[in-house]
Amino acid sequence: MMGNAHLLRELTIHRGAVSATSGQFGDVNGQHGVKLTLQNAQGEPVTFALKSGTGMVTESDTGFDLTLTQTTARSSFTMTGGAAVLHGLADAGSLGAVRATRADLTGDLTIGGTLGSLSLHDVNGGPSHIVISGAGRPTSIHLQRVSQLSIDTASPIAGLAATNWVEPGAVRRHIDAPWLGSFRVTGDFAANVNLSAANHGASIQNFFVSGNLEQVQIRAALGIQRMIVGALNNSLLFAGVQAGLNTLPQGPGDFAAQAKIGVLEARASPARSSPSPARTSPLPASARSSWARSRRRTTAFPLASRRYRFSPTAAGPVRRLVVRRRNTCRCTTCPSPVSQIKSRITC
After folding, report:
1. Which long-range contacts does 248-257 make (Cβ < 8 Å, 24+ apart)?
2. By the 8 A CB rule, do 316 and 287 touch?
3. Of 195, 166, 163, 170, which is closest to residue 181 (Cα–Cα)?
4. Could you tell me if 258 and 303 are in contact, meaning their C-beta atoms sit under 8 angstroms apart?
């Protein structure tokens, strides 16, 4: 097979004593769909395949580094076989899909155009950076355990899912995107989120974190339809607030746009040491909304009093505020005093 270039379909290179191994896959020597198989550190086969385009892979002690060329929005890259370390991937064009569910990203993944979907295993050993420079086509991202990762994308994120997203220290990486459709983390989440645009009036449509949001800033240029978290600890949640503001708004001038937070639910978990699902976390919204509510009447929803403020805007004040605790209290005539609510929320 290897003796005849016209019959080349798969090339296998076994690990030797050399410090680096490289090879091509995809469109190679006039042949399409050529696969390349290398070995990981445990001697297991790892196969690289690319539909439409040419790939070059280099293996070293840091893992696999890939460069893809001549790809389009219909191209798809797959990496299958044994567990592997993906140290880096670069493509100046667009890609339809990257599927490497057994590969751990430890470096940067850079796409010059758009990316339809990205599936990886863990992201750790970084810091790592995912960059998608092309605008327009929404991207779906599926990850497992994440640490020290930043995402910068000119395209919206249609969906992002991860098992957990933690940081080893106080430094917080970020997710910067136009808007976010569906976000789901089944553990804790510790990264800042910055969304500069909106889809159908919402910068965030559905945001779900089972665990804690710890010392993060979530900024939505416009509205937030639905956010459910285990706990908000020392965090900021801003909707329609001026980009440079890092404290509670003091008046209408601190808001950049009319926005609303549809549903915010913080669920206290008996297994966690913190009894408060919301602690010292200012969460202003800029326009009328049913702002905060908890579906579980039996679950305490103690808000961080003295840190919340709802500021009227030119579009009108907050019309309806519902905070459900063991004793349900309502405010329907803001900005009148809210004497019933023990958290001392000021309108």
Report:
1. 248/282, 248/284, 248/307, 248/308, 248/309, 249/284, 249/286, 249/309, 249/311, 250/311, 251/311, 252/311, 252/312, 252/313, 252/314, 254/311, 255/286, 255/311, 255/313, 256/221, 257/221, 257/222, 257/286
2. yes
3. 195
4. no
* CA nearest to 265, candidates 325, 327, 339: 325
- For the cut 90, the answer to whether the pLDDT of residue 338 exceeds it is no
| Number of neighbours of residue 281 by Cβ within 10 angstroms | 23
Q: How many CA atoms lie within 13 A of 240 on its CB side?
A: 27
| The token pair that represents 314 in the structure block | 């030119």
d(CA 17, CA 303): 61
- The backbone region for 33, taken as left when phi is positive above 0, alpha when psi lies in -120 to 50, beta otherwise, is left
Strand pairing of 149-153 and 174-177? Answer: parallel
Asked whether the beta carbons of 62 and 125 are under 8 A apart, the reply is no
Q: pLDDT at residue 9 above 60?
A: no
What the block records as the tokens of 345 is 């929320």
Report d(CA 221, CA 195) in Å as an integer: 6
pLDDT tens, position by position, 234-269: 888 888 888 888 877 777 788 888 888 888 887 754
pTM of this structure: 0.77
- Cβ count within 10 A of residue 116: 19
Gyration radius (Cα) of the chain, Å: 24
Q: Which residues contact 169 (CB under 8 A, 6 or more apart)?
A: none
Residue 6: its H or E element? none
At 130-171, the pLDDT tens digits run 999 999 999 999 999 999 999 999 999 999 999 999 998 888
Looking at residue 347, what is its pLDDT? Answer: 28
Query: In sequence order, which residues have a C-beta less than 8 Å from that of residue 346 and are 6 or more positions away?
Result: 308, 309, 310, 338
